[in-house]
Amino acid sequence: MSKPYALVTGASSGIGLATAKALAERGYAVEGVARNFSKTDFDGLQKTELDLSLVADLPAALQGFKRAPNTLILNAGYGQFGGIEQFSHDQIRRLVDTNLVSNLFLIKHFLPKMKRQGSGDIVLIGSESAVQGAKAGSIYCATKFAIRGLAQSLRADCSSSNIRVILVNPGPVESNFFDELNFEPQRGECFEIPAESVADTIMSALEQPRSVVIDEINMQPIKRSFKKK
Ligand SMILES: NC(=O)c1ccc[n+]([C@@H]2O[C@H](COP(=O)([O-])OP(=O)(O)OC[C@H]3O[C@@H](n4cnc5c(N)ncnc54)[C@H](OP(=O)(O)O)[C@@H]3O)[C@@H](O)[C@H]2O)c1
Questions:
Q1: Ligand 1 atom nearest residue 40's Cα
Q2: pLDDT band for position 189 (50/70/90)?
Q3: Most ligand 1 atoms within 8 A of CB, residue of 9, 15, 57 to mutate
Q4: Which of the listed residues 73, 143, 144, 175 should we mutate to test ligand 1's pocket, taking the one with most ligand atoms within 8 A of CB?
């Protein structure tokens, strides 16, 4: 029997890479999508380089993805924070296209194949910013709130097709997410969720009986404290 196939976006680092590793350990054939895998020291996945922010090119690029995933992990994204008037139009477009529109296009491409297959799981990585707005978060929160609405609606649309939709909303995670930002959580396990813990949480949701949907998971480190860089 062929291995189950998982497609993980944003698999070059952080949550996506930890999730790709966890899936590979469980016997999945894993394909990862990101712009650049040159620093990804894991050979257990097929690496496909694609810029998901270029949504006008995405429908054509997706034609190369023929196989129906058993598990689709929609994780790629980034944060950019500040007052909305500090963003250029291009910055707004790019953040919304990467964090939201690309996921809509990916689901549009893969959902009919998954339905024909008769089962599957779609995991969306939201954020604490999907449930609570915050200062300087207008655009990032708008994208993540939209992901939460998408998850809720898609779940209702897919339940009769045996496709589970799971939303994971982490608080601060240890990853490259803060590399380009002017703030970061205090270092240490009390203040940052290990990316592997997010991956383990996804695995435990996936490993429930197929009749059980863990619809939404909120995760936080035990303490919250951020510092300016
Ligand atoms: N870290 C946190 O505190 C935190 C908290 C809540 C939610 N999240 C969410 O978790 C998800 C993963 O972030 P992370 O924390 O694991 O950060 P990360 O280490 O920076 O990972 C982000 C991943 O997304 C990929 N990506 C970004 N832009 C892309 C694009 N245009 N095309 C294709 N791939 C792209 C990156 O790969 P390339 O750069 O190689 O393209 C990378 O693999 C994001 O959706 C983020 O919003 C993170």
A1: 40
A2: confident
A3: 15
A4: 175
Q: Model pTM greater than 0.85?
A: yes
Task: Give the distance, in angstroms, between the CA of residue 38 and the centroid of all CA atoms in the same chain.
Answer: 20
User: Strand, coil or helix: what is 193?
Assistant: strand
Cα dihedral value 185, 216, 148, 76, nearest 10: 60
| CB distance 78 to ligand 1 below 6 Å | yes
* CATH classification at residue 69: 3.40.50.720
Boundaries of domain holding 190: 5-228
pLDDT in tens, 48-93: 999 999 999 999 999 999 999 999 999 999 999 999 999 999 999 9
Calculate mean pLDDT across residues 179-183: 97
d(CA 158, CA 208): 17
Which amino acid does the sequence have at 198?
Answer: V
What's the structural domain count of the chain? 1
Pocket test for ligand 1, best of 54, 176, 180, 226 (most atoms within 8 A of CB): 176
What are 98-134's pLDDT values in tens digits?
A: 999 999 999 999 999 999 999 999 999 999 999 999 9
Atom of ligand 1 at shortest range from CA of 12: 43
